[in-house]
Structure formats: structure tokens, C-alpha cells
UniProtKB/TrEMBL annotation:
Residues 79-349 form the NurA domain. InterPro entries: NurA_domain. This is NurA domain-containing protein.
Length: 386
């Protein structure tokens, strides 16, 4: 229970502090815009990045001109769009026997046709030791959140590939979409280099299957928090020199910069992510991004980050196809791609379903004459006294 009286004491001064932060952010944003306009020679700037070797993640522009802005073309009249999203029930140390659940929702739209929408969810119940033994020697009860999340991401990509194959139509463009990043950030939290590299190899192997079958795959990140492009400007401003400027751009997100640079319906140029994890990706699969200005109410635009493997960026027209599909889906979905929202609805496991999941486990074990273990703490949390 939250004590609002005590909380109110801590909230004093909150508005004044936020105003100070907003003023500082506006000052940083103006400095970033000035630096953006002054960059001329991209190659020279990248050479400076290589010399400076900053500790920050720095995006590498793929075009000759940093200030590129592209008007996204109209979406093709007919196009196949498939999407997948995932959720999970993590292993619970208060419940025995140990297990966890992955659930992927996936959808297929045959846009511009009268073909029916395909909506489905695919659960994967993991309770056998063999299901993780290829990856680690630990028992199921010690499987970490990061490992389950990595397995879920693999399952999402695998299910998306299968659906794309089934939904594909001859002569019709096809786009495969995911929510969130294609960069395996959570992998580095495993602190087991061999296991990390194994997960990345498995993920990249799935991307390779998309490439071989010529299926453009991309991911959509709403309100991205990264600052790789801003960090490029920090190098341009000399922030990693012995005498840096007094005002640092640290804390300024890329989306704030592009909110001042892009009009609704436009995208930025292409940037290769500076993530160190990408060193483990095979060259064609290193992740490239563009920033997309999604139209919103009152003429405002939300800046989304769209990611795809490098091989998608190299194919003529594929980036524009992906962005055109996303813009139209955002228009239908009130600012967020409808196809991804539908995939999420198929994937999400709500609290009553989680409880029903554990109830089904208990019933099945009881019918088989087997015990089911649950800590007193977990029982009391599920059935509060007051």
C-alpha cells in the first residue's frame, strides 16, 4: 500500500526540478542542432571517431551526407505484412517442479486484398532439461531472466520466418516485422562469453535464412532511448578532447534531435549501429537503423527507430518499402503499427492467464499422483488475507 501523505513530502520541488532539466535539455538540443548543420565531411568525422575511440556508442553514417532526409513513398497497393511478438512466464523459484513458458503471437495481413487476416498464438512450454542442455549445464530452476528472454527472441524470429514463408504470395511484396531491437543487448548481461556468442550465432543464423529467402525483416522501436547519433555529434564538437566544451550533449536522445530535423512522413539517412555486440554478427547482418517521423495529432510527429540487417539496406527499395508499410500501419493504429499491436495482443499473457497456467500444472500433476510444490510466500501472495 502506498502512503500518499509521506510521498507528497518527497514530491515537493518536483515541478521546479523538471523545469530546470527541461531548460538544460533545450540548451543541449540547440547545441546538437548547431553541430549537425556544421558537419560537412562525413569521412573526416569518422576518421576523428576512430582516432578518439570514445567510450560511448557512436553511429556510423552510411551515406555521404549526414543531413540526408528522405520522403517515404506511398505503400504499394497490395503487400503482405507479417509480424510477431512474444511474452513469457519466467521460472519461479517458489514453484516446483521448475518450468517456464514462452508465447509468441503472430499475424499476417494481405493488405489491399480480400484475403482474411491470420491471427494466432503459439505457446512453448519448457519443462525438460534437454530443452536447455545445448546451451548450458544448469538446471531449469537456475535459468536466468536473460536466458529466457534470449530464447523468446529466437522463438519470435523463428515463428516469424515460418509465417512469412506460409503467407508469401507470388508477385506481391512481403515485409516481416518485429517489435523492439534486433541488437541482442541483453546477451551481454549473461557474463558468459561462450554462451553469449552461441546465442548470437543462433540468432544470426535465423537472419541468414531471411536473407537467403529474400524476405526483408525489420524491427520498430517506439520512443527510442538511444543516443548513438548524438554521440557522433559529441565527437564533432570535441567532447572527447583534452579541452571539451563546457556544455556536454550527454543525456540527449537521438529522437529529440530528429524531432527537430524531420517532418512527418520523412526518414533520416542510414546509420550503422556502434554496438560492440555487432562484432559477433556476420558482416551482412550488422544492424542498420533509420529514424522515422510518424505523423501524430496536431501536426506533431513521434520519432521511431527502424532497424534492419545491413543486407536489407543494400537492396534497392527495401528500406523505403519497410518504412512505407510502417507509416501506413501507424496511420491505422493511431500512431503505433497496427500489425504489431495485433501481434502483441496475441502474445501477451495477462495475470488471470498466468494464474490459470499454474492451476493447470497443479491439476495435471495431481491427476498423475505427483506432488506440486509452492512456497508459503507464493501462496500468500496469490491469496491475500485482507
Amino acid at each position: 500500500m502506498l502512503d500518499f501523505v509521506r510521498l507528497q513530502q518527497q514530491l515537493r520541488g518536483f515541478a521546479a526540478y523538471q523545469q530546470q532539466q527541461r531548460d538544460l535539455l533545450q540548451e543541449k538540443l540547440q547545441a546538437a542542432l548547431d553541430a549537425w548543420r556544421q558537419v560537412g565531411d562525413v569521412e573526416a568525422l569518422l576518421e576523428e571517431v576512430d582516432r578518439a575511440r570514445p567510450s560511448w556508442l557512436v553511429a556510423r553514417p552510411l551515406g555521404e551526407r549526414l543531413q540526408e532526409r528522405v520522403r517515404v513513398p506511398s505503400r504499394p497497393a497490395q503487400v503482405t505484412v507479417v509480424a510477431a511478438d512474444g511474452s513469457q512466464i519466467f521460472p519461479d523459484r517458489h514453484v516446483e517442479p521448475p518450468c517456464f513458458l514462452l508465447n509468441v503471437g503472430r499475424v499476417a495481413f494481405q493488405l489491399g486484398t480480400h484475403e482474411p487476416v491470420r491471427l494466432e498464438s503459439i505457446p512453448r512450454f519448457c519443462f525438460r532439461q534437454e530443452e536447455v542442455h545445448e546451451l548450458l549445464d544448469d538446471r531449469l530452476e537456475s535459468v536466468s531472466v536473460e536466458i529466457v528472454s534470449a530464447l523468446r527472441d529466437e522463438f519470435e524470429l523463428e515463428a516469424l520466418l515460418e509465417l512469412a514463408r506460409e503467407a508469401r504470395r507470388d508477385g506481391r511484396p512481403l515485409v516481416a516485422l518485429l517489435d523492439g531491437t534486433l541488437i541482442r543487448w541483453m546477451i551481454r548481461r549473461l557474463h558468459q562469453r561462450e554462451l553469449e556468442e552461441q546465442f548470437i550465432r543462433r540468432y544470426v543464423a535465423l537472419l541468414e535464412q531471411f536473407r537467403r529467402e529474400r524476405i526483408p525483416v525489420a524491427s520498430y522501436i517506439s520512443m527510442p532511448g538511444g543516443a548513438e547519433v548524438v554521440n557522433l555529434l559529441r565527437v564533432a564538437r570535441g567532447e572527447c578532447t583534452p579541452e571539451p566544451p563546457s556544455l556536454s550533449l550527454d543525456g540527449l536522445a537521438d529522437r529529440l534531435l530528429f524531432s527537430r530535423l524531420l517532418r512527418p512522413g520523412e526518414r533520416s539517412g542510414l546509420f550503422l549501429s556502434g554496438s560492440h555486440i555487432q562484432r559477433a554478427y556476420a558482416e551482412p547482418h550488422r544492424i542498420v537503423c533509420t529514424y522515422l517521423a510518424v505523423p501524430g495529432p496536431y501536426g506533431q510527429a513521434e520519432i521511431a527507430r527502424v532497424e534492419f540487417p545491413h543486407w536489407v539496406a543494400e537492396e534497392n527499395g527495401w528500406v523505403d518499402l519497410v518504412c512505407a508499410v510502417l507509416l501506413k500501419e501507424c496511420e491505422k493504429g493511431s500512431g503505433y503499427p497496427m500489425v504489431l499491436a495485433e501481434a502483441h495482443e496475441q502474445a501477451v499473457i495477462r495475470a488471470p492467464e498466468r494464474e490459470a497456467f499454474y492451476e493447470l500444472i497443479g491439476r495435471q500433476l495431481w491427476r498423475s499422483g505427483l506432488p506440486v510444490g509452492q512456497s508459503r510466500k507464493q501462496t500468500s501472495k496469490r491469496r491475500p488475507v485482507l
